[in-house]
Amino acid sequence: MTIRELGPHDASDVQALYESLDARDSYLRFFATRPTQLNVVAERATQHDRGHGGVGAFESGALIGAANFVVLDDPSTAELAMVVEHDHQLHGVGSELLARLICLAERHGVRTFIAEVLAVNQTMLRVIAETGLPTTRRREGSAVHIEIRSPESGATT
Hints:
Number of helices: 5
Structural class: alpha+beta
Oligomer: single chain
C-alpha cells in the first residue's frame, strides 16, 4: 500500500471510490444516500491549497481509501472526512490515512480536527480513539461530534 497526497488529478479516482461504496458504507460516509453530484464532492475532496488537503491509499495503483480536511473559520481548526473501500476496512488503512492526514494538516497550521461520525460507525470511532490523541466527544442525535487535538496543539488528555 502506498499513501500520498491527493490533488485535482485524483478527482476521478475519488469519485470512483465513492461510487463503489455499498449502501451502508455510503450512508456512513455521507450520512444519507449517495449524493447525486459525486463529481463535485470528489473535486472538493482533492482540492489542495491552504484550506484543503487530502491523502489517498493506493494498492496496485487503485485508490482504496481517501481522507481529506477543510479548514474552518478558525484557521487552526479543520473538519475531516475519510472513507475506505469495504474490502480493505479493518486492515489499518483508515488508521494510516488519519495519521498522514493529521501530519499534512499540521503543516497547514491546523491543530484541532472536527469529525462528525454516526454513532453506529464503530469502526471510525475506534480508528479515532486508537490515534491516542486527546479527544472530546459529544453525542448530537444520531451523530457523535468529536474534537481531536494534534500533538502540536499542546493539549493533554
